[in-house]
Design goal:
By secondary structure, the protein is of the alpha+beta class. The protein contains 3 helices and 13 strands.
């Protein structure tokens, strides 16, 4: 199975669609998804809540028809495919403020509260979780928080997941990625890669993992 994530930065053009098609993922865990985003050959499910009127927090796009699930958090979308839950999340960033859906006074507190909601909704050992987590999980964590990194890592451990993107570079190559894909530890990683994206399309690169399901 090929799984990818990309922050679309709230924009959608034929170039965005082409990058996703060329990526050839079975499942895309997308974030900052424009309301008009459609991808030929894929079923799309996005969060009920929106970042702004024209943009959903996250979405899961899959080649196979999924079973749509309630949002585990307003900034996360989830579906079930083949007995596994696929969840795409935006986690708090430093300047995200305290408006809905964030709860807490600091980035760390807001991340911890978000992780609590996800922990109560996502099943252990059969979740695939990804998206823009706004935290590097190794090395410098310039845009994230120490508490946020701790609770994200703890949830991955509780769910029995490995984060295949943890050591891939951020586009600045001065820190590791903040966009991630995690899947059950028993699965084998065949390949994990970053695909650079031109600035006009997004301020995030594409991340893709190929896995062997066991």
């Amino acid at each position: 199975m090929r799984i990818g994530t990309w922050n679309l930065a709230g924009t959608w053009t034929s170039s965005h669609a082409q990058i996703l098609q060329v990526g050839a993922c079975d499942v895309w865990l997308l974030t900052e998804v424009p309301a008009d985003a459609t991808l030929e050959g894929y079923y799309g499910h996005v969060t009920e809540h929106r970042m702004d009127p024209g943009q959903h927090w996250a979405g899961v796009f899959s080649r196979d028809r999924p079973l749509v699930m309630p949002d585990p958090h307003p900034a996360s979308a989830a579906v079930e495919l083949g007995g596994h839950v696929f969840c795409a999340s935006v986690l708090p960033w430093r300047s995200c403020g305290t408006d809905h859906p964030w709860v807490g006074s600091s980035q760390g507190e807001k991340t911890a509260r978000t992780i609590e909601a996800l922990a109560s909704a996502l099943p252990a050992r059969r979740t695939v979780w990804g998206g823009d987590w706004n935290h590097a999980l190794c090395g410098p964590n310039h845009g994230g928080s120490a508490l946020g990194r701790t609770v994200i890592t703890a949830l991955a451990g509780t769910l029995g997941l490995k984060v295949a993107t943890a050591r891939l570079f951020h586009r600045t190559e001065r820190m590791c990625s903040i966009d991630h894909v995690a899947f059950p530890e028993r699965w084998t990683t065949n390949e994990a890669l970053r695909i650079p994206v031109p600035d006009p399309l997004s301020d995030h690169d594409v991340y893709i993992v190929d896995v062997h399901i066991t």
